[in-house]
């Protein structure tokens, strides 16, 4: 099926995130079974991806050829690494003429992003034999180096195949950081060889709260975990798509599952101390104790975590750690006295600083939720600002690197249409009880106006968080993530000066067709009625 010129133009207008610069050209490139994908060896992987993505979409796959093939005289797609191009890191030039589609970049990531843009220019049918791709030249690069999504495997487990599919869609949107929340009060999900009970005990809870009931219990055992081999598989799959996987082991709070497995890690000198893997949501009191035995455990855990994840950063959580157990524990009180720690906040700060040393000894950098500022931020730490922007602003002003993910704009577990409207569709549409429509995601600017240009250099980028209390399966995960992921992509990648919601919505039409083709269970686009 060939596309009408009008439809071609529509496709040009449908790229998300919006590229920095597009110049339309003359004529069209005919993509057919005869089309060849060629590349130099440095980007042969990217060529392989493009070819396999194209073959999933075209009836007959284009073939791949070596650089020196005589067949290169035919219309072809060429991927080239050109280290001396003036393009910034991860930027690319996609030049489409009637005879050649050429993607050039300084690095392999840039070439990869060029191929992602090209895929968005394809017709949204599966079995076309020939497609007209309009001539144009796109020069593009990301605004931020950190373009992230957090997924939560602790509250509800996410199958490896579903994570892989999610990674594909992150790549489609040019996102490059998967923050993987692997432990929480409701489950420990990563195999740790030295501490087998973490998964034997900590990966299972007695019951799953049914939708609609935050405290409910249906008395069935719920649980699962990732073997180290599965983790490696995910990390490898992500890396091939230029995505870094950032592991999070949340501490010292959100530790009910680990303390249920090994009570000595907690404040076990308290009377009637009996931690359990939790079966309802919210904040629980089971913190790790700041003892030497615990720091030894933390060191061991991160030894195995670092062997699995090559990321520069390791996330230690640090959020919502209640001080109640520390204040009640005679052992922690004695420790505080010995170390001169005045209150629970100083214990939290002491804990974070110890973890930072452990991570530094393994050549890694610490990142944590903005509560790691409590009682004084450790010297080299980076901060994820989720309770609004204040923690991020203060951290950047003090010279710390920051990823912005304020709940006001970046919490994809919230409703995207009014709750009453969603719940009318059925109890399974329940989401976390706040409201975050698409437009609000789109309007976010990760660089707060309060920051000077120098301070703003500490804003590494932006991330959306998809907590899974109310996300029981992959269909619901898609529902919460799409189409807000498209708005996130544009916030993270495109120039702030080009922001235009109406224009974004027009381009989103074309992207929705891609979602539909892949049978993505896309959430609603809610537009508030004019007052
Ligand atoms: C707060 S954001 C949490 C999570 C919850 C989330 C629900 C953060 C660091 N902690 O434990 O899942 O709210 O939106």
From TrEMBL:
<dbReference type="Pfam" id="PF00728">
    <property type="entry name" value="Glyco_hydro_20"/>
</dbReference>
<dbReference type="Pfam" id="PF02838">
    <property type="entry name" value="Glyco_hydro_20b"/>
</dbReference>
<dbReference type="InterPro" id="IPR015883">
    <property type="entry name" value="Glyco_hydro_20_cat"/>
</dbReference>
<dbReference type="InterPro" id="IPR025705">
    <property type="entry name" value="Beta_hexosaminidase_sua/sub"/>
</dbReference>
<protein>
    <recommendedName>
        <fullName>beta-N-acetylhexosaminidase</fullName>
        <ecNumber>3.2.1.52</ecNumber>
    </recommendedName>
</protein>
<dbReference type="InterPro" id="IPR029018">
    <property type="entry name" value="Hex-like_dom2"/>
</dbReference>
<comment type="similarity">
    <text>Belongs to the glycosyl hydrolase 20 family.</text>
</comment>
<dbReference type="InterPro" id="IPR017853">
    <property type="entry name" value="GH"/>
</dbReference>
<keyword id="KW-0378">Hydrolase</keyword>
<feature type="domain" description="Beta-hexosaminidase bacterial type N-terminal">
    <location>
        <begin position="14"/>
        <end position="141"/>
    </location>
</feature>
<feature type="domain" description="Glycoside hydrolase family 20 catalytic">
    <location>
        <begin position="144"/>
        <end position="495"/>
    </location>
</feature>
<keyword id="KW-0326">Glycosidase</keyword>
<dbReference type="InterPro" id="IPR015882">
    <property type="entry name" value="HEX_bac_N"/>
</dbReference>
